[in-house]
Design a protein that fits this description.
The complex is a heterodimer of chains A (about 110) and B (about 110).
Chain A (H helix, E strand, L loop, with lengths): L3 E4 L2 E4 L5 E7 L5 E8 L3 E10 L2 E4 L6 E7 L2 E6 L8 E8 L8 E2 L3 E5 L1
Parallel strand pairs in A: 2-11
Antiparallel strand pairs in A: 1-3, 3-8, 4-5, 4-9, 5-6, 7-8, 9-10, 9-11
Chain B lengths: L2 E3 L4 E5 L4 E3 L2 E3 L5 E7 L5 E7 L5 E3 L5 E5 L4 E6 L8 E9 L2 E6 L3 E6 L1
Parallel strand pairs in B: 2-12
Antiparallel strand pairs in B: 1-4, 3-9, 5-6, 5-10, 7-8, 8-9, 10-11, 10-12
Classes of the chains: A mainly beta (about 110), B mainly beta (about 110).
Chain lengths: ~110, ~110
């Protein structure tokens, strides 16, 4: 299994509070991704990174920001959490970009009350 | 924009029976196509992928998929299903110039004894 960890694995928070999720990899892969998974929608890309300090938006980026200061860490921040951001969040990594195999972390279940 | 449709939300098959999960995509150019599997509470694992060449692709766990350009389809098949195949299956599409991989909504597979 690819060395990907996500923290925390579960979090309950209140509307309006900031939340940061962390993805850590030990594979030295260049690309890292954040997805959210919701019933009926599959996985949707939030943001991705193609190198340290290099990030770009995905399909559902509104309300989220990301940062990557080291190759191994990719942070997802909800500046002011809303109930619509209740979801399961997955981090993924890949060596190359589009079309390369993505390896997924175990997920973080976030509940915003 | 590229999109993926999995027409079947839930499929039930008997153990030992054959399986076909449908996937249709919408994209102008030849896409990169993937099938991922997700066991309950887990991240996603790649089953197989198609980039070019032979349109019949073999994957792990005895799965295969066939790319049919004329039908814009990439259906997943397995000749004999095992109880351990019960999971959710996601079809995904990407393109060489676009890191925004799009997933279908998923098909949940139940295997009857």
């Amino acid at each position: 299994d690819a060395g990907i960890t996500q923290s925390p694995r579960h979090k309950v928070t209140e509307t309006g509070t900031p939340v940061t999720l962390r993805c850590h990899q030990t594979e030295n892969h260049r690309y890292m991704y954040w997805y959210r998974q919701d019933p009926g929608h599959g996985l949707r890309l939030i943001h991705y990174s193609y190198g340290v300090k290099d990030t770009d938006k995905g399909e559902v980026s509104d309300g989220y920001s990301v940062s990557r200061s080291k190759t191994e860490d990719f942070l997802l921040t909800l500046e002011s959490a809303t109930s619509s951001q209740t979801s399961v969040y997955f981090c993924a990594i890949s060596e190359g970009g589009a079309g390369d195999t993505q390896y997924f972390g175990p997920g973080t279940r976030l509940t915003v009350l | 924009a590229q999109s993926v449709t999995q027409p079947d939300i839930h499929i039930t098959v008997s153990e030992g029976a054959s399986l076909e999960l449908r996937c249709n995509y919408s994209y102008g150019a030849t896409p990169y196509l993937f099938w991922y599997v997700q066991s309950p509470g887990q991240g996603l694992q790649l089953l197989l992928k198609y980039f070019s060449g032979d349109t019949l692709v073999q994957g792990i766990k005895g799965f295969e998929a066939e790319f049919k350009r004329s039908q814009s389809s990439f259906n997943l098949r397995k000749p004999s299903v095992h109880w351990s195949d019960a999971a959710e299956y996601f079809c995904a599409v990407a393109h060489e110039n676009n890191n925004d991989m799009r997933f279908g909504a998923g098909t949940r597979l139940t295997v009857k004894p």
